[in-house]
Amino acid sequence: MNNNNINKRQNTNARKQNTKKKTKKKMKMWKKILLIIVLILVIAGSVFAYKVYKNGGGLSGMLATVVGHDENTKKNLGELQVLLMGVSTDQEGVALTDTIIVASYNPNTQKAVLLSIPRDSFTGTNTKKAVASDKINAIYNITRDPMKTVEAVNELTGLDLQYYAIVQTEALIELVDAVGPIEYYVPTTMDYDDTSQDLHIQFEEGLQEIDGQGAEELLRFRKNNDGTSFPPEYGDNDIGRMRNQREFITAVIEQTVKLENITKLGTILDIASRNLITNVDFNVLKDYLPYAVEFSTENLQTASLPGSVPSLNQTNNVSIFVIDEEEAEQLVKELFYPEELTQEGTSSGNTTTNETSNNTTTTSSSNIKIEVLNGTDDGKSLQEVVNKLKQEGYNVSRTGTTTSTSKTVIANKKEVSTTAMNDIKEIVGTGTISDMSSGGNSSKVDVTIIIGKDYK
Question: Do 299 and 368 sit in the same domain of this protein?
Answer without folding.
Answer: no
